Structure of Histidine ammonia-lyase:
Amino acid sequence: MITLTGNTLSFTQVNKVLFKNEKVMASAESLKKVEAARQSVERIVREEKVIYGITTGFGKFSDVLIHKDDVEDLQYHLIHSHACGLGEPFPEIVSRSMVLLRANALLKGYSGVRPIIIERLLELVNKKIHPVIPQQGSLGASGDLAPLSHLALVLLGEGEVFYQNKRMPSMEALVKEGISPITLTAKEGLALINGTQAMTAMGVVAYLEAEKLACQSEVIASITMEGLRGIIDAFDEDIHLARGYQEQVDVARRIREYLSDSKLVTRQGEIRVQDAYSLRCIPQVHGATWQTLNYVKEKLEIEMNAATDNPLIFDEGRKVISGGNFHGQPIALAMDFMAIAVAELANISERRIERLVNPQLNDLPAFLSPQPGLQSGAMIMQYAAASLVSENKTLAHPASVDSIPSSANQEDHVSMGTIASRHAYQVITNTRRVLAIEAICGLQAVEYRGIEKMATATRAFFEKAREITPSITADRIFSKDIESVNDWLKR
C-alpha cells in the first residue's frame, strides 16, 4: 500500500501503482489540510466573497458573479461544457496515471475540495476503474480542461470507463463496485479539471517506457557491434572521462561490460582503424539521450507533486490567489526534448541497420539474405526503419513553440504540452520498432559470425530473442517478427 501525501510521490511508487497494481491511500495528515481548505471555500460561499471559480464564472466569464444558491450548478455546467475531448482515448495505463496524479495534487490541500472527492479518485485507482479520456482537445494551459473533464464525469456516474478489459458506461462499473456517484459542490469541478495531469500522466508513462528502451538500445547496439566486428577501443573509459559527461561514461562502461568476453569485437587496426560514427559514437549519442531523460524525469517528479489548479487557498483561507500554475510550459518543453532525444536513438539505430544489411558496408551476405538475389532477406526491414525514423522527425517538431489564444483572448498564451506528450509517446513507440528491426538484423549477423563467439551477456539476449524471432532461413512476412520483438521489448 502506497500512502499519498501530495508531496512525496516518486517514479518508483508510480511504477508500482501503474504496472504492479499496488493500492493507494491518502495520508491522514494530508486529509486534514484538505478539510481545512474546504472549510475556507464554504466560508467564501457563505460570505459571498468574489473569488474566481467559486463565486464567479470561468475564463472570460470571470467578471460574472454567481449567486451562492447557484454554485453547485456552476460546477455541474463546467464539467459538461468542458467535456469536449476528441479522437481516440488515451491508453488505459495513462488514464490510470491521470487519476492517481489528480488525487495526489488535490491532497496538497490548496484546492478546496471535500475529502470524498479524493477518496473516490483513489477508489477508481484501487478498483481499476479507468475513465475513457479522449486524447485531443487540450491546449495545455488553464489546465488539461477537456481531458480532465472526461475524468470528472466518471465521478458523477457519467461518461465511460475501461473496467475488467471492457469499455462500458461509468455507472455500470460503479454499481458493480458499490461506488455511489457524487454531486459536485463549490469549486470542486474547477479543482478537478484545472491541472496538468493529462500531459503529466502521458509524460510519466512515456518516460518509463523511454527509460527501459534506452537500456535495451545498449544491449541491441552491443549485438550489432559483434555482428559488424566493431572496434571496442572506442569505448575505453579514458576517452569518455576526457570529455566529462557522466552519462556518456556510463554508456561506454555498460557496453564494455556487455562485450567483456566477446570474441567477435576487434581492436583498432586489427581489421579497421576506425568504425563509422553509428558504432564509434554510441556512448556520445546514447549518453546525450540519457542526459535528456534525466532532465525530463526531474521535471516530471516536480509536476507529479505540484499544485496546478486555480485559485489556490493558503493560510486556512486567509489568502486565496488566482495564478497560473495550470500552465503546462515546463512539461511541454520537457516532452519536446524527450521526443527529440528518443528520436535520436532511432536515427542512430537505423544507420546501424543500414551497416548490417548493405553489402558495400560489410562482409556479410547482402541484406542478410539466405540466398541473395532470389530472396530479399532484411532489405525491406531497413525501409520500414527508415520510414519510422522519418516519421519521428516530423513528430519531433516542437509543439511548445506554438500557441493560440482562447477564451476571447483572456487565455492568450498556451503550452500545447498535451500535444507534446502525445507526440513524445508516438516517437517512443516508433523507436521501439526501429530497435526491434536492429535486433532482428543483429541476431542474424552474429549467426553468420558464430554465436559461440558472442559475449555471455549478448548470448543470453540472443537465446531469449530466438524464442521470439527465429533465424532467417527463408523470406517470410517479417512484419510479424518485428511486432513480436516489439511486444517482447515492451513487456
Notes: DSSP finds 18 helices and nine strands in the chain. The beta strands are 2-4, 24-26, 86-89, 130-131, 134-136, 160-163, 166-169, 312-314, 319-321.
